[in-house]
């Protein structure tokens, strides 16, 4: 939260429009407890983040919510809509910025190709670490445990999304066509999965920014985000 340009922008936006706004650092991120590097009990998981999101929505919000997720946050938002029967009716809409749905699927394949699974039977999954190169990390990479990747497979959305029967609210995806981390073609595919019939097509919208990158934090990018929030409101 502390260094996120999008978060700071949304805080100002919500103050200007007199809207309530909830944001938080996921477990092992920012000011929250937990550590990617020291996680012997395997608490750093997609499931943990999904559970925390649901808990905060239940305890700290009321009435209809617009869930705004960036990258992995879009995956978590869709999990609420598709897997939490108690909270899905509170989701008035979802706005996804540079969606990275099921992103660990790609990383799992990288781990397989690198042969890190060869020692699976000899080590505890939390001890098998893949230091994945990343231009967003000060150290040059993000440590990802095999346990994290294993657990994430429990939350893949293929089966839930196919058919789109559970989609009951408008969804807008914003994606930069210059995104080098997640292809905008993936977002177009997800949009099609969410729109199996004519009624669903009215609910799912994709906004492409020709020169946008993965972060979409430039002023012109944030202006597009503002417009889509206003449209949904």
Strand order of the largest sheet: 1-2-5-6
Fraction of residues in helices? Answer: 25-40%
What is the chain-wise order of helices and strands? HHEHEHEEHHEHHEH
CATH topology of the domain at 1-20 and 65-102 and 157-233: the name is Rossmann fold
How many strands appear in the DSSP assignment?
6
Question: What best-fitting shape do the alpha-carbon axes yield?
Answer: globular
Task: Output the structural class.
Answer: alpha/beta
CATH architecture of the domain at 1-20 and 65-102 and 157-233: 3-Layer(aba) Sandwich
Low-pLDDT residue intervals, each spanning 5 or more residues: none
CATH H-level homologous superfamily name of the domain at 1-20 and 65-102 and 157-233: Alpha/Beta hydrolase fold, catalytic domain
The CATH class of the domain at 1-20 and 65-102 and 157-233: Alpha Beta
Give average pLDDT, whole number.
91
> How far apart are the termini?
24 Å
Largest sheet: 4 strands, parallel
Measured by DSSP, the beta-strand proportion falls in 15-25%
- Radius of gyration from CA coordinates: 18 Å
Alpha plus pi helix count: 9
Give a verbal description of the structure:
With 233 residues, this protein is of the alpha/beta class. Helices cover 39% and strands 15% of the residues. It has a domain at 1-20 and 65-102 and 157-233: 3-Layer(aba) Sandwich (Rossmann fold), CATH 3.40.50. The longest helix has 15 residues, at 46-60. This is 4962_t:CDS:1.
Summarize the entry for a quick read.
With 233 residues, the protein is an alpha/beta fold.
């Amino acid at each position: 939260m502390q260094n996120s340009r999008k978060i700071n922008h949304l805080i100002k936006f919500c103050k200007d429009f007199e809207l309530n706004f909830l944001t938080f650092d996921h477990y092992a991120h920012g000011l929250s407890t937990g550590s990617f590097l020291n996680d012997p009990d395997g608490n750093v998981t997609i499931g943990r983040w999904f559970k925390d999101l649901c808990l905060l929505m239940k305890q700290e919000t009321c009435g209809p919510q617009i869930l705004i997720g960036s990258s992995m946050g879009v995956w978590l938002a869709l999990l609420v809509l598709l897997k939490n029967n108690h909270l899905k009716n509170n989701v008035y809409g979802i706005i996804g910025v540079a969606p990275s749905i099921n992103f660990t699927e790609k990383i799992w394949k990288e781990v397989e190709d690198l042969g890190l699974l060869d020692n699976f039977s000899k080590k505890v999954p939390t001890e098998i670490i893949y230091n994945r190169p990343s231009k967003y990390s000060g150290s040059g990479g993000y440590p990802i445990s095999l346990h994290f990747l294993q657990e994430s497979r429990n939350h893949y959305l293929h089966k839930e999304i196919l058919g789109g029967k559970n989609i009951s609210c408008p969804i807008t995806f914003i994606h930069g066509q210059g995104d080098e981390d997640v292809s905008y073609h993936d977002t177009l595919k997800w949009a099609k999965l969410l729109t199996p019939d004519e009624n669903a097509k009215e609910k799912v919208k994709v906004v492409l920014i020709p020169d946008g990158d993965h972060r979409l934090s430039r002023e012109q990018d944030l202006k597009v985000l503002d417009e889509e929030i206003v449209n949904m409101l």
